Amino acid sequence: MSKKVTMQQIAGYLGVSKFVVSKALSGKGGVSETTKERVIQAASQLGYFSQKNAYVKTMKLEQLPKVPAAGKQSVLVLMPNIRFRTKESAYCGRILDGIASRLEADGFGMVIVSEQSVDHFLHFLNPNGILGLIGVGEISTALLLEVHRIGLPMVLVDHEDMLIPSDTVFTNNYESMYRLTKHLIGSGHKQLCFIGDIAYSRSFKDRFLGFRSALEEEESVGDARDWSLSVKGFEHEHFEEPIRQWAAKKQKLKTLPTALLCANDMIAIGAVHALEGLGIAVPGDVSVTGFDNIEHAYKMTPALTTVHVPKELLGRRAVERLLGRIAGQSNPMEKLLLAGELLYRESTGPANG
Asked: Which residues of 311-346 are buried (b: 16+ CB within 10 A; e: fewer)?
């Protein structure tokens, strides 16, 4: 049987005092954010958080700040970048619909939280009315540690943190993008490019890995240095100009790929607009694909080939997993993968020539 990992071992591993480790893991002040992140990472690497009886100093419920009782038990839904992640957004809004409908079916409420600050986060907690937390999208490690420290059950949707153990719910991003890439290769495309910031989210990274794996299995694909283009933003307008500049250079050098596989639909919509602005026909000259199947994807012209993500189902499964975690807190963590559906529309076709 392996020995229990102690704070003293973590301190020795980092070359700091046990007092510093204790401060960092307890969520108290007195240590810098950089030191706290180092302690969290070291604790995770040594297996501290995965221990069944790991000591993380936990606040007693009566110590938590109180807010007026909502009259029934509720689930916190944490959504960072709230400006772009609202109930009206094309992607996260549908996930929220799924969370809300599943909670309502069992008589539970929902409180949407947009504050990432650990200091302010505690003020949302009502110990008499909060069942657990569902995080949608990217959430900081420091905040996840705070949730872990107070013992609040949590499930993450479209995100996971390698340092903090939790249940997660994803679409099978890798397999879906792999199949989509294979479809285009089978249609004669040999110069393909992935467009998206793979550091933005775990989903984007998995989609790129599926794309890359499909290409690596082929002998006749293009130069690996041209396999990806990183763009940042949230709305299709953010992506249009950088893609237009990139495509214009490629067009001039006659090295423009015949297929662009985008990390999500918003990027793909920006790509279509950018290409058409340069007089490049979609799909006549370049095929374009997206991911998520938001409403704009099938309403635009040409309608976008994409992967349908069961967004409402992601939300419902997150609630079910949270309720399961509450019922069995000592059970192993689970990662649920929901199958995406490939939707072939007018934005893709055989390679030209």
From this structure: bbbbbbbbbebbbebeeeeeeeeeebeeebeebebe
